[in-house]
Design goal:
Number of helices: 12
CATH superfamily of the largest domain: Metal-dependent hydrolases
CATH architecture of the largest domain: Alpha-Beta Barrel
Helix content: 25-40%
Order of helices and strands: EEEEEEHEHEHEHEEHEHEHEHHEHHHEEE
Strand content: 15-25%
Oligomer: single chain
Shape: globular
Structural class: alpha/beta
Largest sheet: 8 strands, mixed
Number of strands: 18
CATH topology of the largest domain: TIM Barrel
Length: 418
Amino acid sequence: MKVLIKQATIVNSTSPFNGLAKDIYIKDGIISAIADSITEKADTTIEGKNLSVSIGWIDIFSHFCDPGYEHRETLETGAKAAAAGGFTEVMVIPNTNPVVHSKSQIEYIIQKSKDLSVTIHPIGAITKNTEGKELAEMYDMHQSGAIAFSEGINSIQQPGILLKALQYVLAFDGTVIQLPEDKSISPHGLMNEGIISTQLGLPGKPAIAEELMIARDIELVKYTGSKIHFTGVSTKKSIELIAKAKADGLKVSCSVTPYHLFFCDEDLTTYDTNLKVNPPLRTKEDMLALREAVKKGMVDCFASHHIPQNTDNKICEFEYAKNGMIGLESLFGSILSMVGNPSSVIDLLTILPRKIFGLSVPEIKEGAKANLTLFDTTAEFTFEESMIQSKSKNSAFIGKKLKGKVIGIINEDKLALN
């Protein structure tokens, strides 16, 4: 396959071409030329006003539901959604049926997805069946290709179990991903505990349930010297705790979701079940604090928390709706709308997450394998359901005006254009 990208501004903070508009010629999946003007014939030519290109984006927390919940998503439809969102690589959580807690299940995901345009990295479960009781075969899973370890949409409640897991991954410099929530605090909460939950008559989940878990886990990291990544961080205090841990030299990192930056608990007055997520949408103050944290470099990367739900799990009373929304296709437009500064947003989608999880960082240079995302930072549009490639459509971003549009991706000698 021969692809010619015409006059695209390269957005890559570590590249000598950063900020320059260049032609890029790709042959058989390899960048063969970068120049001011290339006249080589190509199978596909990509050009357009305000076209930008960066190394491929990576998402660190998506649910592709395969095996077991293919009515919500499959590896194939998840990859299509990821490509439409600009992602060339995705880390998938282990909350499938059966749970991804052994080497054979890691190998299943890698083998089944090897011919897709998006590279899929499986995350192994920390405990058997994500029940939080007994450690899973973490070393075997690591040897088979597990990129990290997590309970996914669950979290490790027992400190002793997490302590063992943190000690275990030291043997191969692994990373534990934790969704911070102490479930013993208000286990029946449906949204953030506060003024809005009182007005709506819904039981709340207090911010302290997240903050206590983060404080506890930081102490365990201090004791073990291991690496932990907190995802779905949603409160101002949580960010402050993580910032202090980093300042103390601990191996702690964090990610935020697009919807925690875009929405707050005030948006739940319509009882929109697509906004029922975990951790819940917090106060406006927390939302604004998260945006500032991204701008100040206190957040290490973004995580889509792409959680597909079929219609029956969302078209129902708020109390019975399942948590989660899809997020791969709307991530770039929603974040750029809130945060601005495309260069720093791209760093948080490309270089920083790969460093956290020990992945090699692609390069935009002659002779390098093409792992690229094409986008337009200036395009403004309304996100429509017709744009969604995911099998499920549970997105609260439908109908919202966003800024920053994905043109397509090039990865593994495959081209996927929107």
